[in-house]
Amino acid sequence: MRLRTVQLSDGPAPCVRLRDGRLARIDRLLPDAPRDLLALLESERLDALAAVVDGTAAVADDYCVDTEAPVLAPWTRPRKILGIGLNYGAHAGDLGEQAPRSSPASFLKGDHTIVGPGRPIVVPPGIGKVTAEAELGLVIGRTCHQVGVDEALSYVAGVVPVLDQTAESVLMENPRYLTRVKNYPTFFAFGPELITLDEVLAHGPLSDLQVATIHNGAVHRKDTVAGMTFSPAELLSFHSQVMPFYPGDILSTGTPGAVGISPGDVVRCELGDGLAALTNPVR
């Protein structure tokens, strides 16, 4: 399934894309469904929604919305956003570092950093170089704590494209400034859709999924998930030994390459060959 939040005349509404391409309101398809994607994840009703979508031959037009309705961030208040640093060797080389080998490097971001698709990424004045980084984001589907690598992905509801921003000039002053450089407003864009893991895997193994950072229409850097030092399952399992993850939490798995951005630029995260894309202008 592909789920998104759109702006309607009566407020934001979570929707699911039907097999015929139409976009249906989840609160019309699923009785008593919350009108919020995060709350839907917390209720652990994705399987029930999938059964309705797969079992319905025809959905009334009044259940559907305009497929061109403005798209918002899928949700804006996850309990946590966990980012991973230097998880591709090539990107570590960009920063003159080596990718960690014994355990992954990570950081937390506040939900104030969230911005939806098409919304501006704002470069704060006076902080020097800022980079944008395309990443694969894992969305947690059920509470996950102290799980093994083999079972980790069973706790993942799906994936989202991510653009994670960094105040790189400040980071180069001192790597201990990591929390600071990652937490300016608009420094975490994600969406437009949550793509459930079964749909992702229908396109091939997760290890074959390509992640690309696109800058002003040109590919800056791309790599596959197989190029990660620590796989998505390893990242989730490792960090679940430290902290619990909850439905709607996002684990952003690292970038194949960061690109410097300036006002007037357009940056894009592409997942796979047409699987998903996120585009944001820079202001």
Automatic annotation (TrEMBL):
Top-rank lineage group of the source organism: Bacteria
The organism of origin for this protein: Mycolicibacterium rutilum (Mycobacterium rutilum)
UniProt GO molecular function: catalytic activity; metal ion binding
Pfam families: FAA_hydrolase (PF01557)
Domain Fumarylacetoacetase-like C-terminal: 80-283
Protein name per the record: 2-keto-4-pentenoate hydratase/2-oxohepta-3-ene-1,7-dioic acid hydratase (Catechol pathway)
Family: Belongs to the FAH family.
InterPro entries named among the record's database cross-references: FAH, Fumarylacetoacetase-like_C, Fumarylacetoacetase_C_sf
Entry-linked SUPFAM superfamilies: FAH
Keywords: Metal-binding
GO biological process terms on file: small molecule metabolic process
Keyword Metal-binding: yes
